[in-house]
Design brief:
about 260 residues; alpha/beta; eight-stranded mixed sheet; two-stranded antiparallel sheet; globular
């Protein structure tokens, strides 16, 4: 086997399936499920909630696309990506129209129901920007193991939502860019104080300020930081991720737009 460098365009082997989610209010949402290759059972499941669709957020937003390309092979993770209502990507367009973070509660519920139905293990919500609002507001369900929040703006989610997660006993990992456009680390520590108590930290809650990063995590350096933290949280033995792929599951592909 020949090792190859993992770059921004590397697509590692996985079992990938186009899927549809059915919401309680009658919509069909399009998405993809990526599972570990060769029928290996996933250790955990990432249910990804994308950034604001009115500002180009979608299931193909680059951090999530790279998570789906790498983490099934490198960390035995299942990665569920989908377009919330009215959102388009190369996979297609989900039915409905943007619900300003309110009607999307049905989208989150549909994703959790899908994970239940498929008996995918140890599901974690991974929200990014707008997606963190959906996770905080609607994702604290019994089936969910915990949450990972990337660049939370806290525009829609409030103190009651944070308190609900704090009271749940579930771990919440919060990644805040140093140069975030909406909520920088010092303010984030104040707003998320209920999740940063000694008791909360003892069960896995934490806030990590990422030096040099911006809201959209542009740059392979910052993508690697995010993916490493995700893996360190949900499957610690697989962290840190390698910089090279050893070819054990077959050759890597290269993405070309």
């Amino acid at each position: 086997m020949t090792s190859t460098e993992i770059t921004a365009h590397s697509i590692l082997p996985a079992l990938r399936e186009d899927i549809e989610l059915k919401t309680a209010d009658g919509l069909t949402l399009v998405g993809e499920l990526a599972l570990p290759p060769e029928g290996r059972p996933p250790v955990a499941t990432l249910v990804t909630l994308h950034p604001l669709p009115t500002h180009a957020g979608m299931m193909d937003s680059h951090v999530y696309r790279k998570a789906a390309w790498r983490l099934p092979a490198l960390a035995d993770l299942a990665v569920l990506r989908f377009n919330t209502r009215g959102t388009s990507s190369a996979r297609g367009t989900s039915e409905g129209t943007f619900g300003d973070g309110v009607a999307e509660q049905y989208d989150v519920a549909a994703a959790i129901d899908f994970v239940d139905h498929r008996e995918l293990p140890n599901p974690w919500l991974v929200g990014w920007s707008f997606g963190t609002e959906l996770a905080l507001c609607y994702g604290c369900e019994p089936q969910i193991s915990g949450a990972i929040l990337l660049s939370p703006p806290l525009h829609r989610a409030g103190e009651a939502d944070i308190e609900r997660w704090a009271d749940s006993g579930k771990p919440v990992k919060i990644l805040v860019p140093e140069h975030d456009d909406y909520l920088k680390p010092p303010a984030a520590r104040e707003r998320f104080a209920a999740l940063l108590t000694p008791a909360a930290k003892a069960r896995g809650c934490d806030l990590i300020a990422v030096d040099g990063a911006k809201h959209l995590w542009v740059g392979e350096k910052y993508v690697r930081i995010v993916l490493d933290e995700i893996v360190r949280t949900v499957n610690p033995p697989a962290a840190p991720l390698p910089a090279e792929y050893d070819g054990r599951f077959g050759p890597a592909e290269k993405y070309s737009a």
